[in-house]
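Hi U.,

Before I forget, here's the chain from the pilot set. I'm dumping it here mostly so it's searchable later in email.
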Amino acid sequence: MISRRGLLGGSVAAAAGLAGLSGCATVTRSKDIAALNRPVELPTYQRFDGPKPDLPTTHELMPDCFYRFPADPPQATQGSPGDGSEISGTVQTSNPIPPTADRNPYWQELNKRLGSPLRLSITAASDWGSKFATAVAGDTLGDMFNVDGGFAYLPQFLEARAQDLTEHLSGDAILEYPFLANLSAESWRGCVYSGGIRAVPIQRGVMSSNLLLARQDLLDQLGVDLGSPNADELIKAAAAITDEKQNRWAFAVPPTAALAAMLGMPNDWEVRDGKLVHSRETEEHKEMLSITAKLQADGLIHPDGIAKNNQKVWFSQGSAVLTQDTYSSIQSFYRRNTVEGFAISLPVARQRDGDVGRFLLGSPNNSIATIKPSSPERTRLLLRVLNWMAAPFGTQEYLFRKFGLPDRHYTLDGTDPVLTEVGGSEVCLGEFPIQYLIDGGFPVYFPGHPEAVDVAYNHLKAILPTAATKPVYGTYSPTQSTRGKILDSRMDATTKDIQLGRADLGSWDQAVADWRKSGGDAIRHEYEEALAIQGRN
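Structure:
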């Protein structure tokens, strides 16, 4: 799964986009916070009347949880959404690029079911920034294209290059597209720029939240009961786990998500005493830095855990017993597993007073996708196609979209689809890149591992009542868009220096002061103004 990481390469892609605007954006390069953050009526949410989840929904943010894929899934649509005309698009993928349509029976069947041939330009995520910039400059993005919120002048770019979908999707208008209406209001909030709905969400919800994953099978072998630890108990357990001679460390990477929950840190920003405060400015953040620096100094983190990013392999192989990843990563760990008895647990982080920690939820969306400006008829056609692609879990459409054709791409284990080797290639391990044009909500469903569903459900049930969302999500700060990536890189470098012992903890205060002067205070002011404009302060 692709993370929100400013994947357009920041100013490079933004410059390419603005170079081609030709004056048609109404607020090009504007810093008019009111215009850029003008609210709009969000789409009406209407839940799809699909299969009943196997576990009760205990919180409004709880995803649907299923032990197995429903038997005899219904077909939720009638006919094909397309009109026979070609539809083009630009997307990325973190998986190997699939065979082209002329060599890919899955893609051929997809075109048949859509009723329009789909021509996709697919790029590896590592090359996405430069490829996107080139496509913007050459006006070759196509009818639909994926875009991330992490680059400069995004509202202006969308005003010029994306169809305003407000009249089609705002309020009850969205009910014409029931699978789009099945996506959460918070996801749609991330698609509003300059007073218009200018994109559709690639929804992930709480499934994208970072948390601590544990190899429960290894903990059992070592006789370590991690339980539901606070910070002190986690450190004590880490010392019992680590054995450098056995090539085993407690942590693959610094456990910042768990420590954030244990220490009660803000989810990036937080309103304190009527003012937005960034996590970096808090004493809790400094304590987190102090703890992770000590974990590194004591040899409890994999030696390459701060400098490198290979934690998935270390966790799978057992050289790290604890790692930081997302709920949605659980299935991929089980899929690549070759160890008998492999089992994942999700420890519930607690504060020192024993209360459940303040879990920090991820952004509602992975990214967004948008439609090229066109006639109302063409726009409705593309929305019908996107609606079909967003068919929810438990439908025939979802089963095909994620798993392909029976016998060729998947076989059934009971009612659970299991990808074949051919399916892994042609359907991209269930992640064919149309999922970066639109996707349905992510359920808690791990084919073949119902026990993992219980693990995720019990963790969610424990943390959701006190979890913290991102308070500025759905607002836009011009300074964050133009300076944020540089400022974040500087703070990340200081963080690593402290964790690796190259700088002392006292250097953090100066780094924060420099961040504030270089743009942090301006970002704060712009977010505060944006929240007031949207009535969310």
